[in-house]
């Protein structure tokens, strides 16, 4: 593995001489390895997770990052995993590398690398998913590849920036942001030295018409100052979500009063299914997103002051984003900015499909409670148990419909 990555690094460095920061070939290599059947879906604390962690650590070592975990590049943490109804105490691990520019402030660049394994962990949306490999190419081999390629670029660009960079890949995200929560509670660098955190979760399915979703917009004015022009340069459409709280690892840093921003290319029909495979990744699209993020980091480095943290207006707690007892079996349209929950995809044999809910529907009320945003939807889900039947009010074109949903 070490020598294979050395060759990959040489290829990437050679391509950089032609003035292009990010090439599709190394991105593809990372994703194809991480999302291969050999890694069996990278379930937290599984052998596949360990092999993925070793690959990432080897990459950090070859790039020249300093180990910044508690055991070399690794930061192990305990996790209780429920398997077939029984709880087991296991060990997951974050992988942490540090690009030390001798600066007083550090920017965190992160992504989770775990996925659903063979369907015994997390929330698979594939019917009869037990013992089937969930490769998680978009979720989140794509973000992990982004961390590796950004690390490779900034370590080899012959520039000593005014910030250090801490590159972290988290495990346990699918089980409730466990790895990132552990990191911010037991950081390997002081939290008060962190200027900002940039997160990448599912950046591999860029649709030029829908563009990207940028979350955390309201956690600092700097995002609104820098990103619009950079997106215009990359010809990337974007939708913003002001909240610093969401179903990914930037939430853990936001709750420690650190400005955050997350990049996401949106939902699709393969989300949390065994069909999320590497051949479906838009590699050119991911390269353009990494270019935008690298330019954003360049822009942060040129600012005369550090990003000011702002409390983004979201009254909902982080606990509403994970560990639901029930699910509708839908993929929300995260680019939708209207009232309600717009449905981008519906999983077969799940409550939404059985109730007759279709892609394109906008659910405006569930269980008698109005849905204004996706956070309302998450909070409502958390109040229900399996077996309960509730009414869902939805808008389908100009028609308002009421259906019964059994969880």
UniProtKB/TrEMBL annotation:
PANTHER family: METALLOPEPTIDASE M28 FAMILY MEMBER, PEPTIDASE M28 DOMAIN-CONTAINING PROTEIN. It holds the Pfam family Peptidase_M28. It comes from the Bacteria. GO terms for molecular function: aminopeptidase activity. Residues 326-398 form the PDZ domain. This is Aminopeptidase. Keywords: Aminopeptidase, Hydrolase, Protease. The keyword Transmembrane does not apply. The keyword Hydrolase applies.
